[in-house]
Amino acid sequence: MSTHARPLADWLAAASDDDLRHLFRARGVRADAPWQDFFDAAEALLDPASLTRVLPTLTASEARALVSAASGQDAGRETERLKALALLRPDGTPYPPVVTAIAGRTASGPPAQAPAPASSEAAAAHAAERAFTTVAVLADLLMIARESPFALLTGGGVSAGEKRQLAEAGVAAEIVDTLAAIALQSGLAVSADRRLRSSQSAEDWLRSSAADRWAVLATAFRDALPRGVRSETGGWIPPEVWPFAHPWDPAWAERSRTLQEAASLLGLIADDGTEPEWAVSLRRGDAADPEALVRLLPTEVDRIFLQNDLTAIAPGPLEPALDVRLRTIAARESAAQASSYRFTSESVAHAFVAGETEQSILDFLSSVSLTGLPQPLSYLIAQTAQRHGLVRVSTDDETGRTRIESSDSHLIQAMAVDQSLRPLALTAHLDALTTRVGRDTVYWALTDARYPATLVGPDGALLVRERHPAPPSSASTGNSIDLMPLIARLRSHQGPDADAAWLDRELEAAVRAKSVLQVTVGMPDGSTRELLLEATGIGGGRLRGRDRAADVERTLPVSSILAATIVAP
Known about the structure:
- The chain is α+β, with helices and mostly antiparallel strands.
- It has 24 helices and 18 strands.
């Protein structure tokens, strides 16, 4: 039992629920922490392992203040922050376990730096081009993740296999992890079950203009910056000093490098370290102002050329909403100032699966085409529409089994002997096939095998399904943890007599450790007596131990013990 925990336990008991939530979150406390009272909490927060976890989170100024306090000086303006982290006692001095934990650590201040100078016209143009490219590539990554979520490694990075596939799709492997981090902090992607998937908010973002897309990413990046690099106004300190922001974090050097790379990709830092005009408002903590960036971005187009070879050419960057819809109908073959798209039976079938109809596709393409609708493309759409829905997948109300029907008996026969469908264990039933496998699983298996399958509801209506439904954007893990049950449990064990509760804990700890205690006992006549006891047991409100002076066993009522101090373990 650490005597240093008592002042912290008293502070915790007197703190508000908001203060406790802030402290527990900052210290990474789990909602299921096995603490019964504030004495447990105080001891756990002063445990060396807990201190080892919190010290790397301190900013440079907080680390310097803590070192100063440990040397007997004042912690200055960081005093309240360090108290809130349970590193300083209410009187502003560090708890002894904290002094031990920071022994040998130094915290030299970062070099003083003024805001970066304004970028030249050439540097700003290059930063704008990079920002535009980053936004476009991130959109590609999200659209790929929407159809096929990425496998994530234990550390949160995208797996090497996924990176190779993305490289084939035009996404540079070396920036995939940085782009994934930007998407996650923007709420455009979520991570669940070690898979990275685009979120519901990504659907609106994908259809926004390039300027609006950038503003969302840049604002989220700024708001997610660690405390050490945030300025007092809510922006950021000069990027040159970011590597000095968290001096006690061994992983900070790599993390600060990643943050600088992300800032560069978003066009917030030019290649020469200067600051583009559109980064100024964000750096100051204000709302994003992309007006200066827009002036340097290529003009978006809203028309395309449809060609007889079943391709489409966009004569410039296509408006995002049009690009997203076009890519549900056609596969993009190249991405540049002039992008090209190719229509195939598979791509048009994919559009039907996504809820398009023959007429909606024709209307859309006619509205954006500068060259009319080529006959080969019209024929492809009509032919694919005729095949779509030939295979109907539904659930039999009587048996609960999945039922596969088709007006084309040859398709039924083909599916019955298709080796790729063997896991479904299809069984012939009259002129249809049935299986115990779920309807949606069967539907996607048939789609993968390139059968023109359609889901059908109980009323016979066609259903539209997404293979990987987009989950809502999630709040950060730390803020989503509900700590109120833990705080309520600690409050429920908060008795009116803290001194008596602390004494009980000290005595129980001394018995477990077989310690020697200096005990002050209150006598019936009002006097006190000092005893040196080797604690041997406690129970029934009595402490048992051997009196070293008299060499006899004594049993003392705990209620008579006024104070107890451990002399030796």
